[in-house]
Amino acid sequence: MKQPPLSGFSSVCVHAGHEQDPRYAHLTPIYASSTYVYDSAEQGMRRFAGEEDGYIYTRWDSPNFREAEEKIAALEAFGLTGADGKPLLVKAKLHASGMGALSTLFLAHLKSGDKVISHYSLYGGTEELFRKILPPLGIEAVIVDMRDLEKTTAAIKADPSIKMMYLETPANPTLRCVDLEALIAIAQEHRLVSAVDNTFASPYLQQPFAYGADYVFHSTTKFLNGHGTAIGGVLVGRDIEMMKGPVEKVHRLLGANSNPFDSFLLTQGIKTLEVRMERHCHNAMEVAGFLDGHPAVAQVNYLGLTDHPDFAIASRQMKHAGAMMSFELKGGLEAGKRFIDRLQMCLRAVSLGTCDTLICHPASMTHYSVPKELREKYDITDGLIRVSVGIESVTDILNDLDQALQ
Ligand SMILES: *Cc1c(COP(=O)(O)O)cnc(C)c1O
Question: Sites of the modification N6-(pyridoxal phosphate)lysine (predicted)?
Answer without folding.
Answer: 222
